[in-house]
Design goal:
Elements (H helix, E strand, L loop, with lengths): L11 H18 L4 H21 L3 E2 H7 L8 H7 L7 E2 L3 H4 L4 E6 L2 E6 L14
Antiparallel strand pairs: 1-2, 3-4
Helix pairs in contact: 1-2
């Protein structure tokens, strides 16, 4: 595209997917238990959703400050050291970020959507007549 004098645009969905993976890996690296990992995911979602509602981009430096105290190293340092190709700031993608708080699956004609904190618990489903 350079020959047209244009550059390739930022892929917001890819950046958001990379962010989700980095958040999960960051929590795992910090050896957080399931509840603590969920709290980190909720913090990230709250920050990103706030940015989305304000029409602002997700900024790694600001997000890193939100996650201060989770680990000895900052989230921004972690992503740089681990080679995540995240931009310093990028647009929030609502559908991708929803995965921080929701779990969805489907198969055999059945679709299930759960809040992430409810996943892994035993559920008994019955038919209603």
């Amino acid at each position: 595209m350079d020959f047209l004098g244009a550059s390739e645009g930022l892929n917001a969905k890819a950046q958001n997917r990379g962010l989700l993976q980095a958040v999960d890996d960051f929590a795992a690296d910090a050896q957080l238990d399931k509840s603590e990992r969920q709290n980190v995911r909720q913090q990230v979602y709250a920050y990103c959703n706030e940015q989305l509602q304000a029409g602002e981009e997700i900024e790694l430096e600001s997000l890193s400050k939100e996650l201060a105290g989770v680990s000895e190293k900052s989230f921004q340092e972690f992503t740089a050291e681990q080679g995540y190709e995240l931009e310093e700031s990028f647009p929030a993608d609502r559908s991708t970020l929803r995965q921080l708080t929701k779990f969805a699956g489907s198969g055999g004609g059945l679709t299930i959507n759960l809040r992430r904190h409810a996943a892994g618990r035993t559920r008994i489903l019955g038919s209603r007549h």
